[in-house]
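Exercise 7.
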Amino acid sequence: MADERPVSNAEFNRKIIEEFRAGGGLVGGMFEGLPLVLVTSVGARSGLPRTNPVAYARDGGRILIFGSNGGAHRHPDWYWNVLADPRVTVEIGDGEGGVETYAGIATVLEGDERARLYREQGERVPAFAAYQAGTERVIPVVALERADAGSAG
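Solution. The predicted structure, written as tokens, is:
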């Protein structure tokens, strides 16, 4: 008989992370076809590295991630981590079966820019519009930029 214990969030994420890394940034199941990025931040309380799979969209040279937390009424833990320390590690599929890893800086977007970019994500992936409609909190939009982006030239 199959083990029917509920899977913890940490165990769920661990399996997605393993599949992402083994599959060059691609995963199946409920996330099949959804662009995912792995973001490693430092735990705001623990000080330990925490890696989370997060849906993303590109905006020029930036990667945008969305703190939807599956429509929950609270921000995801990774959001609090990047508020405390915006330095992150980004892992993203390179389109050739591998995963590119780089140091990034996370910036929480606000105002009209945040509203426009979240609306565009809701048009691309309707679940995001439903997440925002189902909660009173403003779902964060965070831009990830390469930490060395300003040093080129």
